[in-house]
Amino acid sequence: MAPTAHLALINLFIGDIQGGLGPFLGTWLAEAASWSPARVGFVITLVGFGTLLLSGPFGALVDRLPHPRLLVVLACAGILAGTLLLLPARSFPAVLVAQLLAAAGGTLLLPAVSALTLGIVGKDRFPKQQGRNQAFNHVGILIAAGGISLGTGYFGPAIAFWVLGGMAVAAIAATLTTPASAWNRRRAVGWKEDEEGEPERSGIRQVLGNRRLLVLTMALTLFNLGSGGMLSLLGQKLVATAADATTWTARYVMVAQLVMVPVALFAGSLADRRGRRQLLLVAFAVLPVRAVLSGLIDDPAWLITAEILDGVASGIVGVAVPVIVADLTWGSGRTQTALGSVNAVQGVGGALSGWYGGLSYGLFGWTGSFLALGVPALAALALVIWLDATPEPGRRRRRQEQRSTAIQGA
Fold first, then answer.
1. What Rg, from alpha-carbon coordinates, does the chain have?
2. Among the residues of 91-190, which ranges form H helices?
3. Which position among 55, 63, 80, 149 has the lowest Cβ density within 10 Å, counted as fewest Cβ atoms?
4. Other C-beta atoms within 10 Å of 195: how many?
5. How far is the C-alpha of 252 from the C-alpha of 272, rounded, in Å?
6. Rounded to whole angstroms, how far apart are CA atoms 257 and 123?
């Protein structure tokens, strides 16, 4: 089996587990433990902030430790343990500890898989491969959500735990069977493979102080503040306004993931031809529309339109962000450190999103809470419009270069 086939299997199985219970957490706690939206949002916020301190160091660990397969296995094991510990938990401390363990595994998983991919395919093939990775990732989530949707009627909401556990075990098996010889450390960080010795790594301040990286990170933080807690809040809204909230939440996840599959493949192929910045513009533009639809629509069937937009936005962001970070840090030896740091800072938005959405519900009700989530999304869009996010020239610069070439040719 080709190494890229192993990458496909790994991403297929980790798709469902990297966020732990994800959107099903709020539904599970609301149904099984009668938690309020504010309490669910608070624990999600605490977990988010708890893992922020780990994201940068985990990225640095991936850059330093030439064993990405081992790190992927450890990450999957942590997610599995934390999620199974959540099954009997009802008290706030027990839920918090279980979620912290699962979130720590998910925090390590992203840079570890990114480093594994870069070390197998190299930088030139990374955008397309990242698109394929994300496509298989979303297929895995789709399969898991389908299993949860079909199994809820027979086994209840706890089916989500058993589906996640099976996917975690399969992800570990796919990782361990990946040929170790297919991965090259120098290829993973942008160093010449035929040279001896290890080049000096760039300073962390030099890498993380890149202006484009900083503005991109701020935009992603605002994006996650609007997006991070939206589906969880929607699941809680369904508990209060509709029947069978867990099944509907599973259907929304399935619809979003089904949309993400072609979007991820398309984004991976367009990343080099059209530029990363234009892809981000599309992703960030649809989030405010999704917020409005989620707030104004009560019919569970019509709410599917909002999750179609989620599929477009998330499908693009999942492909574009690791590619942009690799663009901005290539050859520095700090690519995963930068990716982990970006994830840490943007995680502030994701961590605050659950609390922000729950607080907005308390003040404004369901409609107002979703509209409030759309406000930071508009600010994120404004930043991306202003930002020349990647090394490719902007349109104005390209026009200037074309004029200069024409003048010189004359």
1. 21
2. 92-121, 126-155, 159-176, 185-189
3. 149
4. 9
5. 31
6. 26
Give dist(CA 360, CA 298) in Å, integer.
Answer: 18
Q: Taking the CA atoms of 119, 124, 130 and 136 in sequence, report the sign of the dihedral they define.
A: negative
Q: What are the respective helix, strand and coil percentages of the chain, to the nearest 5?
A: 80, 0, 20
Tokens of 122: 């190299």
Contact 278, 389 (CB under 8 A): no
Tell me the residue type at 4. T
* 8-state DSSP, 199: P
Q: Are 251 and 149 in contact (CB under 8 A)?
A: yes
- Vertex 46, ends 42 and 52: CA angle to 5°? 145
Q: If you average pLDDT over each of 157-161, 214-218, 239-243, 396-400, which comes out highest?
A: 214-218
Contact (CB, 8 A) for 342 and 217: yes
* 216 Cβ neighbours under 8 A, 6+ residues apart: 321, 324, 342, 387, 389
* Span between the terminal Cα atoms of the chain, in Å: 56
Q: Tell me the mean pLDDT in the region 248-253.
A: 77
pLDDT bin (cut points 50, 70, 90) of residue 394 is very low
Q: Is 14 exposed, middle or buried (0-12, 13-18, 19+ CB in 10 A)?
A: buried
- Residue of 194, 40, 179, 44 whose CA lies nearest to 106: 44
Residue entry with tokens 């030099």: 206
Q: Which of 151, 301, 162 is nearest to 238 (CA)?
A: 301
Tens of pLDDT, residue by residue over 11-40, are 999 976 766 666 667 777 777 777 777 787
Look at residue 253 in the predicted model and tell me its pLDDT. 75
Q: Which two tokens stand for residue 16?
A: 């469902």
pLDDT in tens, 39-67: 877 887 787 777 788 888 999 999 989 89
Max Cα distance, the chain (Å): 77
The pLDDT tens digits of the residues spanning 90-101 come to: 788 888 888 888
